[in-house]
Amino acid sequence: MGAMIGAMWTMGWDWRKIVDQVCAGCAQPFNDLTFPFIAFKAGKRFSAVVRKFFGDLQIEDLWIPYFCISANLNRSELKIHTRGSLAKAVLATTRAPGVFPPVVYEGELHIDGGVINNVPVDIMKTFCNQGITIGVDVSPPHELSPVRDYGDEVSGWQAFWKRLNPFSKKHIYTPSILLVMIRTLEFSGVSYKSLRLKCADLYMHPDLLKFKRTDFHLADDILSAGYDCMRKNILHWLEQPDARARRPDLAERSSALRTREGSLHDSSPVAAIAVGRD
């Protein structure tokens, strides 16, 4: 989602258009379940939405420098997309393994780069010539709750039935395959957060635990949570001597911002930084 939002911003879309288009486009495409031989979802609907958003636009033709990442399964390495089809790059970086089928990019299989680097602030630091780098981590900030031992083997049919049967008294929690796959995808973001903190000037962690990954109908609430986190962290960051020296223009505005109620309609430079403009 970060790759998609970032691409829309570099195209010149304002925040309201981004939210409206993403919510309208992504509300249904996740429902195209298929026989799970390659993946749980066919990916046709979501691919159509992405191609509708970006058309034939090339990354090098964007108004603002842009990159996104994917994991190359053939080479077992990270691919940094800085040129070529924007739609193809976004599709490659949004292919959660097992959920969507891999994308064939230049003859090789690509999936979501999050399996290697979930919050690529280290890449961004180099990409922006050691400029101010902001990371936004939406991975769950804690481990999963303790799980009762269900043994060495599990019957998928029994687990499915017990989960659906409201009268089952011997229900033992078993993780769903989607939970395991998504948690695996988030692993690098949770496990290597401390290493990435060294690369980011500002590392934010919005409180999103109460939202599901498909809660597009709650976009405004998610937006508010992100904005509140951004505003609090940036204002605190601007109190640091180093930050004030590097961005004196924003430091002058911080006092006024502290006394003003935050608003999603705020078009101040602080809001602009939060979505990656500077």
Keywords:
278 residues; alpha+beta; two-stranded parallel ribbon
Q: Any idea what the radius of gyration is?
A: 20 Å
Weakly predicted, low-confidence segments = 261-278
Range of helix content: 40-55%
Q: Which structural class best describes the helix and strand composition?
A: alpha+beta
Compute the average pLDDT. 82
> What best-fitting shape do the alpha-carbon axes yield?
globular
Describe the protein in words.
The chain is an alpha+beta fold and 278 residues long. The chain contains 12 helices and 6 strands. The chain has helices at residues 2-10, 15-26, 44-54, 86-93, 121-127, 156-164, 177-191, 193-197, 219-237, 241-246, 248-258, 269-274, and strands at 68-72, 77-81, 103-105, 108-112, 134-136, 202-204. The protein has a 4-stranded antiparallel β-sheet. Strand 1 (68-72) and strand 2 (77-81) form a beta hairpin. The longest helix is centred in the last third of the chain and has 19 residues, at 219-237. It is globular, with a radius of gyration of 20 Å. Residues 261-278 have low confidence and may be disordered.
